[in-house]
Design goal:
10 helices, mainly alpha, two-stranded antiparallel sheet
C-alpha cells in the first residue's frame, strides 16, 4: 500500500502505458515539463490516495459493467486493478530512485518496459477469474493505467451526478479511453518514417475523439457541468497543461501562490 501522502501530478503522469503514449505528441498526451511538476509543470493536478482509489474503483466498475460481470467478479476486478495501479506506482518510484531522479536518453524505453511488465502482472491476475476474451477486452483500457482517465473520473465524480447519469458518463469516457488507447498502440507498433507520419495523423484523430467525447457527454451533463468538464479536461499548449492554467481539478489542492513582485523603484 502506498503512504497516505498527497500524490503529485508529475508522479502519476509517469504511470502506466499512458507513459508509452507520450511518444505521441497529441493534444491530450501527458508530456513532462523539463522541470517536473504535474502535467505541464509545477502546479499540475494533485490527488489524495483516497481520490485515486475512488477513481480506480470507478474505472474498474465501468469495465466490469461493460463485460457484464456479476457483482462478485466485478469486486475482484476492482481489487486486482487497484493492486496493479499501486504496484506500478511503487515500481515507478523505485525506477526513478535508481536513476537518481534523472531522465536519461533511455529513460522512456525503460519506463515502457516497466509498464509492459506491470500490465503483464495485471493480465495474469485477471486470468484467475475472467475468461480469455474478457481479459483481452479489459486490458484495452485497464492495462493503459491512464492518468488521463483518472483525471476525467475525478472531475465527473466531483459533479455528484445521480447514479444513472454517473453510469452513463463513465460508459462514454470508457469508450473514449478504449479508442485512444488503440490509437496509441498503433503508433507504438510503427517504426521509422511510418511512425513519424502516424504521429502527425494521431494529433487530428485524438482531437476528433476528444470532440466526440465532449459532444456525447453534452447529452448527459448540464450546460454548466459541461463547461466545467471542458475546462478541466482540455489540454492547452505544447506542454499539456490542463484547462489553460485556469485552475486545478475540483477537489485537488491548489498550487501555492506566486510570491509578490518586488515594489517598483521610487521615481527620482
Amino acid at each position: 500500500m502506498y503512504t497516505r501522502t498527497r500524490v503529485s501530478g508529475w508522479r502519476l503522469a509517469m504511470l502506466g502505458i499512458g507513459v508509452a503514449a507520450l511518444v505521441v505528441c497529441s493534444p491530450m498526451s501527458f508530456a513532462q515539463a523539463p522541470g517536473g511538476g504535474g502535467p505541464g509543470g509545477p502546479g499540475g493536478p494533485q490527488f489524495s490516495p483516497e481520490q485515486m482509489a475512488g477513481a480506480w474503483a470507478t474505472e474498474a466498475k465501468a469495465v466490469g459493467k461493460e463485460l457484464g460481470l456479476a457483482d462478485d467478479l466485478s469486486a475482484k476486478l476492482v481489487d486486482a486493478y487497484k493492486a496493479a495501479r499501486e504496484s506500478q506506482m511503487n515500481a515507478v518510484r523505485a525506477k526513478r530512485s535508481e536513476a537518481g531522479g534523472q531522465r536519461g536518453p533511455g529513460g522512456m524505453e525503460a519506463m515502457r518496459e516497466l509498464n509492459d511488465a506491470e500490465a503483464g502482472k495485471l493480465a495474469t491476475a485477471l486470468k484467475a477469474f475472467l475468461k480469455e476474451d474478457q481479459v483481452a477486452k479489459a486490458m484495452t483500457t485497464l492495462g493503459s493505467f491512464s492518468f488521463q482517465w483518472d483525471i476525467m473520473t475525478v472531475v465527473l465524480g466531483d459533479m455528484k451526478l445521480d447514479d444513472a447519469k454517473s453510469a452513463e458518463a463513465a460508459k462514454i469516457v470508457l469508450a473514449y479511453i478504449a479508442d485512444s488507447s488503440k490509437l496509441r498502440e498503433e503508433v507504438r507498433a510503427k517504426t521509422g518514417a511510418d511512425r513519424e507520419a502516424m504521429r502527425e495523423s494521431m494529433r487530428e484523430k485524438m482531437t476528433s475523439l476528444k470532440k466526440k467525447l465532449d459532444e456525447d457527454l453534452g447529452k448527459v451533463l448540464s450546460a454548466e457541468q459541461l463547461s466545467i468538464w471542458s475546462e478541466k479536461t482540455t489540454m492547452r499548449g505544447g506542454r499539456g497543461r490542463f484547462g489553460g492554467g485556469a485552475g486545478p481539478v475540483p477537489g485537488a489542492p491548489t498550487a501555492p501562490p506566486a510570491p509578490p513582485a518586488p515594489p517598483a523603484p521610487a521615481p527620482k
